[in-house]
Amino acid sequence: MFLVSKRILMTTSIMALMLAGCDAKDAGKNSEVVLKPAVTTGVSANPEIKILADLALNGSYGYDITRSLTTEIGPRLAGTPQEAKARRWARNKFKELGFTRIRTEPFPVKGWLRGLETAHITKPYPQRLVVTALGGSVATPKAGTKAPVAYFADYEALLAAPMGSLDGKIAYISGRMEKHRDGAGYGPANQKRRSGATEAAKRGAVAVLIRSVGTDSHRFPHTGQMRYAEDVKKIPIGALSSPDADQLDRIFAMDKDVEIKLRLNTRDLGEKISGNVMAEIRGTEKPDEIILIGAHLDSWDMGTGAVDDGAGVGIVMGAAQVLMESGLKPKRTIRVVLFGAEEVGLVGAWAYAEAHKDELAQHVLATESDFGAGKIYGIQAGKMPANKAGIAAMSAEFKYLGILPKDGDTNGGPDIIPLDAAGVPTVRLNQDGTDYFDLHHTPDDTFDKIDPKAMQQNVAAYATLIWLASESDSNFRDEK
Length: 480
Ligand SMILES: [Zn+2]
Fold this sequence. Notes:
- The protein has helices at residues 4-9, 12-29, 47-58, 61-72, 81-97, 155-159, 186-202, 242-253, 306-326, 347-355, 385-395, 417-421, 436-439, 452-471; strands spanning 100-113, 117-123, 127-129, 131-133, 145-152, 170-173, 207-211, 237-240, 259-264, 267-281, 286-296, 332-339, 363-368, 376-381, 404-405, 427-431.
- The protein is α/β, with parallel strands linked by helices.
- It folds into two domains: 4-111 and 271-471, Zn peptidases (Aminopeptidase), CATH 3.40.630; 115-265, Glucose Oxidase, domain 1 (3-Layer(bba) Sandwich), CATH 3.50.30.30.
- It has an eight-stranded mixed β-sheet with strand order 3-2-9-5-6-7-8-4, sandwiched between helices. A five-stranded mixed β-sheet has the order 1-10-12-11-13, sandwiched between helices.
- Strand 2 and strand 3 (127-129) form a beta hairpin.
- Helix 3 crosses helix 9, helix 3 (47-58) packs antiparallel against helix 14 (452-471) and helix 9 packs across helix 14 (452-471).
- The protein starts with a helix and ends in a 9-residue tail after the last helix.
- The relative contact order is 0.18.
- The model is unreliable at 1-40 (pLDDT under 50).
- The structure holds zinc ion (ZN).
- Zinc ion is lined by residues 296, 308-309, 342, 370.
């Protein structure tokens, strides 16, 4: 933590240099994220935003919060004592930073634990594979399931298989996820994770293995929530790391018969408690009008949930902290919501929308940071014309960070989906997620992967956003 006076004294030329250095570093990694000099001065001409930027770009607000959460709590699986600890951490952190109206809103969630998990090729070339259970998967028999394996190049190939063709077999679904800055490859690749077990069970399979939904080539499997259909037999499903999936692909390419022994000792824990933790900076003139910035507090269990979504927690809490420390007084209330049980199906998001349904008309604007810690390159509005106009009116104020208006509609982020559906205006600060799915839901999602410079830019962007949204004359909603 720095002293405020010191930070304010930082000259604009130093700041410009820092930003330029940041660009040069990123340029080596990914040419797509280089800021365009023509629109990026590195310094805001708006005196209030300049105060916020001086704090955010020279401090370690978000980074410190994310370090605290991922170090002092670590993994935070929904419904577990670890997630409860994270809620206590969040309340204490809000208190320490000077927030008001700190509260937890509990809700029920289905408890689930991973347990021992192994996979071995037993024929034709016996060897171990690196596997993990998908979230919510039922267990194999305790000693495991040994069965011949049917190969599918992708999810569509599985759908083309006739009913009964997988009787007594393990279905293996390969298929790679494409790498994109905005994560566009995730939706298509995720179908096998979500519905693979149901579709394979319909065709008679006893278990499923998928190539991990991810973009890395490391020997880490990617977990993630799966779903069962009500009326179809529930069979276990696991994900293989990408190199292990490659290994299987090579054996199938040799036209060999493959047999695998799979053991996933998962446990259904029945109903458990999760919760949303929230706190506010009360507005001075319109305290009933709410600007909501959120992130999710829960994580998967294998890593420490740093990019997903410890980073988001740091970014939104850090941005609100910057606003408080700046001495600027927002007219509208800034509410920071840390959602519980996002990973297992947006359970906290739906609980929030239900608990606050009488208050949603006063939610002026809502957004979530849940796409890692990469640099922000775009600002995108929700679908309503007034929402678009309100965001367009402020978008030029983000150019100093290299953030440009982005076309298309946003739903505000995963936990904002229920609010968006209820008509709450939304906005999204689009992060560069090119490498996000290298780490997503793996044991490798740890704090060392977070770039403090990119975190500073994120915190500056969110501080700019909440200040402008609080000051805006727009209510971002279409007239009824
Ligand atoms: Zn997430």
